[in-house]
Structures are given as C-alpha cells and as structure tokens.
Amino acid sequence: MARFPVPQLPTYRRLSRVFAGPTEPAAAARGPIAAILRSALGTFPPVFPDMAHRPAAAQLQLSSRCAAPFGELYRLAERSDSNVMCFVGAAALKTKLRDIIEEFRVVPGKRVKLEDYDPDWSGDKRVPRAKRKELAKQVLTQDVTKLAQAQELLYASDSRSVLLVFQAMDAAGKDGTIKHVMSGINPQGCQVYSFKKPSPEELDHDFLWRCAKVMPERGRIGIFNRSYYEEVLVVKVHPQILASQQLPSQKFGKQFWNERYESINEFERHQTRCGTTIIKFFLNVSKSEQRKRFLERVNQDDKHWKFSVADVEERGHWDDYMRAYEDALSATSTKWAPWHIIPADNKWVTRASVAAIIVDTIKSLDLHYPKVTSESLKRISAAKQQLENEKDT
C-alpha cells in the first residue's frame, strides 16, 4: 500500500494544526498524546506530572497506524481548553522551525520510489474532511501574510535571491499553487517564467542557457513553472527530441543522462554559492486524479482553454514519466538544492504545504534590514526637521 510520511505532532507545527487541532488538559497528560509530546519536547513542566513517568514514544513510522493520535487529538479538541492550546502552541514554537521541510524533503543520495508516497495523503481520514480543509486554508492565509513580509525583507537586504522550481505531470496544480501561495507577493519583487518548447536560438545553446539567463537577481523571488528539468524528463521519455538539439555526441545512454544530472547539480551549486536559495517542488498527483481533472476541463466550457489533446497523449507514457521522475529526484536532490515531494491530489494540502516550506526556508536565511550609517541618520534627521518646519499650503 502506498504510504506517505506522517511526522511527529509538535515539530510539524503548521500541518499539525491543519490535520489535528488542539487538545485539552486532562487528556494531554495521558496515553499516546503525552508520549508524542514527550518525545518531541523532552521533560514536561510539573503542571503535567503524569507525563514525567511516560516512556518516550517510538519514532513515528511511514504507516497508517500513525494516524491514530491525530484522530484522538481532533476528538479531544471538541472540549478543548485554551490554556493547553497555548501550552502546546508555545512548546511547538521551541522546536526546530524547519522540521516541516524535513518531512517532504528527498534525502540526498536516497533512491526515490514514488509508490512510497501517497498523492492523496491529507492526514487522518477519520477527521472530517471539511474540518481539515478549513484549517488548511487558515494556515495558508497566515503563511501568505508571512511570505509577503519575508519578501519585503529579502528585497530590502538585497543580498540573496530565492528560486522556486515547480515540476509535475499535467493538471497537478502548478499554476493554482503558484497563484494562491504567491497571492500576497509584491509583483515588483517576483518574476515567473514558464518554459515551453525551446526556440531555435535556445537550441543553439546548452540546455541550461535559457534558464540561466533569467535567474532571479538579488532581492527577488524567481519562479520556474517547469524548468531545465524538462531536459531529463520529457526529453528522456521522448529521446527523439535530442536529434534537434545538434549535440556533438549522438550516444544517449546511461552516461549521457548521468552527465546531465551532474551538470544540473553543478549549476545549482554555483547559483547557491552566489546567493540564490533553490527550493524544488514535485507536485505528486495520481493518475486517477489527473483523469478526473482532465474530464473537468473537457466537460466545463469555461475550462476548455486549459485542455490539450497532447496532454492525453502524454498520459499514455505515465509509467515512463514516473521512472524519469524517480531517476531525476534521486540524482538531483542535494544539500544545496533539495527536492520536496508534495501530495497533490488535494489542492488544499498542496498549497498549505508549499507555503509553509517557502516561509520557513526564507526565514532560515537570517536576513536583516540594511544598517543605516550615522551619516545617513544625520541626513534623515535634517530632512525630518525640514519637513516639520514646512507650512501647509
């Protein structure tokens, strides 16, 4: 059965709010909930004496049995107490800010098998879907606001840039995710590029050239809706495309693809060294969900513009694409530019997850507003005095 990682509750701050909810005092001090809290937070304050005697919970595994505590927390939330809500929230804030990222990140060197990741994952199915969805929307709203603030700091510091790379099968929700997650961003500090079929000029350069020339400058967020990864995905599934690339070598075996992965890793490492933080997302949609979304586009007149017969033709190569994605994710998830596999069958899960990862990653950059020199402060003071002395006309 396909599985998706379910993280420890308190450390997975944002999505624990989405898929679980708060708990109440008496229940928080007992059973599996106490064990989970203890394993993540260590020694508990004396207000919960029970917890000191509970053994630490075993690490949560990637299996369905992990869902039980989430359902228990939700049921207890119906009679929750605000004091314990504050306790749980405060304790969560003491945990590592980027633990959420670890739950989606592809570990460098790990061989990816997409069958191990459930595209339909959305937390504990015993919790009403409407409740989980509403909480996810609340978290997304909060993170959109935080992202706008982070972007302003990024722009003001003018020392680093951020590149978001989105890859997915057709109808996985790339456009919608970008639209919702980036809805609060100042357009002056953001640029989006969608890469289609290469032009004759682009084919006369190396496969990274057209993306390299539009990398975000310092202070800006760049978004690649598809990217240079198409050269190891669609081109690998359709190797006949290589004939039009006028390459010096006509041998396109395993070594050729490994060299392309190596070129990508070196390119991304160079960009990282120069101050660009690269965050890569693979929106993992299932074949059945893709069919459902294609049918929606066919059956609704106002969505016909989104539909292409070519998309259905590409659907026939689904297994080949999954193998190509597994190879690419395995070979190019690095410490400096990791991949994140995001479940994409539920758009509200996708958007909340992507937003949380972006916000926490930018926050980890430790950016600061530029320091104002003493000379500048004097000029500011003089300007202030001048403005205050002016008479209204």
Description:
With 393 residues, this protein is an alpha/beta fold. The chain has two domains: 1-95, no CATH class; 97-363, 3-Layer(aba) Sandwich (Rossmann fold). 48% of the residues lie in helices and 8% in strands. It contains 17 helices and five strands. The chain has helices at residues 13-19, 25-28, 31-41, 67-77, 82-93, 99-104, 129-157, 174-181, 200-203, 209-212, 234-237, 254-273, 287-299, 309-315, 318-332, 347-363, 374-389, and strands spanning 161-168, 190-194, 221-225, 276-284, 339-343. It has a five-stranded parallel sheet with strand order 2-3-1-4-5, with helices on both faces. Helix 1 runs antiparallel to helix 7, helix 7 (129-157) runs parallel beside helix 16 and helix 8 packs across helix 16 (347-363). Mean pLDDT is 78; it is low at 1-98.
Write the layout of secondary structure elements.
Layout: H1 13-19, H2 25-28, H3 31-41, H4 67-77, H5 82-93, H6 99-104, H7 129-157, E1 161-168, H8 174-181, E2 190-194, H9 200-203, H10 209-212, E3 221-225, H11 234-237, H12 254-273, E4 276-284, H13 287-299, H14 309-315, H15 318-332, E5 339-343, H16 347-363, H17 374-389
Helix pairs in contact: 1-7, 7-16, 8-16
